[in-house]
Amino acid sequence: MARTHKTAHIKAQMVERARQEEEARSKVVSARTRSQ
User: Fold this and answer.
1) How far apart are CA 11 and CA 21, in angstroms?
2) Cα–Cα distance, 21 to 13 (Å, whole number)
3) Which region ranges are annotated with the description Disordered (predicted)?
4) Which of 1, 5, 25, 35 has its CA 20 to 30 A from that of 11?
5) How far is the CA of 21 from the CAs of 2, 3, 11, 31, 32, in angstroms?
6) How far apart are the C-alpha atoms of 36 and 22, rounded to whole Å?
7) What does the alpha-carbon distance between residue 21 and residue 15 come to, in Å, rounded to a whole number?
8) For the chain, what is the radius of gyration of the CA atoms?
9) How many Å apart are CA 19 and CA 5, to the nearest integer?
């Protein structure tokens, strides 16, 4: 029980991190497009 909960928590963290990285990447792209 505890293991499955921990796995779900880790999976949620990975998803959250991936979403933040994608957000940061899109910000960099938009900033680069504006500066040109």
Assistant:
1) 15
2) 12
3) 1-36
4) 25
5) 29, 27, 15, 15, 16
6) 22
7) 10
8) 16
9) 21
Tokens 């979403």: give the residue.
19
Q: What pLDDT, in 10s, does the model give residues 4-33?
A: 889 999 999 999 999 999 999 999 999 888
Whole-prediction pTM value?
A: 0.64
Give the 3-state DSSP-derived string for the chain, with helices as H, strands as E and coil as C.
Answer: CHHHHHHHHHHHHHHHHHHHHHHHHHHHHHHHHHHC
Q: Cα separation of 33 and 26, whole Å?
A: 10
User: Residue 9 has which token pair?
Assistant: 């928590």
